[in-house]
Write a structure and sequence with these properties.
By secondary structure, the chain is α/β, with parallel strands linked by helices. The chain contains 5 helices and 7 strands; from the N terminus they run βαβαβββαβαβα. The strands form 2 sheets. Strands 2-1-3-6-7 form a 5-stranded parallel sheet, with helices on both faces. It has a two-stranded antiparallel ribbon with strand order 4-5.
Length: 146
């Protein structure tokens, strides 16, 4: 067994955050916020829901992520579509999902929550807002691994 390289505060295992966003700039900015904060997070980024499901289908149940972050619109597919697929599959149904998008009407936010999203968070445009979101993901993922 390989030695752990993760955070000792969560049992020596790194938490995993999976981000699905088709906007390269948004992925880069969020990644920079995690890097800047200097904590040992394992963050994997995907462009499509299909890529997310391909990854999830290849990993062991013990390695499932602490949280999945979905952009609302991902190349013709919405977070609602991906969320429904995640929640109907028993392998993934307990993984917390956060929707992170530029603008979503309140009635759609309500539907996302009813379908099982833990939260709907508006994307910030300022770096401090993005850092705050990254920190909240760290705390949420940390909480879900304890």
């Amino acid at each position: 067994m390989a030695p752990s390289t993760g955070n000792p505060d969560i049992g020596g295992l790194p938490f995993k955050i999976l981000v699905v966003d088709d906007d390269e700039e948004d992925r880069i900015i969020l990644d920079e916020a995690f890097t800047e904060m200097g904590y040992a997070a394992e963050v994997k980024k995907f462009i499509t829901g299909d890529a997310l499901f391909n990854y999830l289908g290849q990993i062991d149940a013990a390695l499932m992520p602490s949280v999945i972050v979905l952009d609302y619109v991902m190349g013709g597919v919405t977070a609602m579509d991906v969320l429904k697929d995640l929640k109907k599959d028993p392998r993934y149904s307990t993984i917390p999902v956060i929707i992170h998008s530029s603008s979503i009407p309140a009635f759609i936010q309500d539907k996302l929550i009813k379908e099982g999203a833990c939260a709907v968070v508006e994307k910030g445009t300022r770096l401090d807002a993005i850092r705050k979101f990254a920190m909240s993901l760290k705390e949420f993922a940390n909480y879900n691994k304890t």
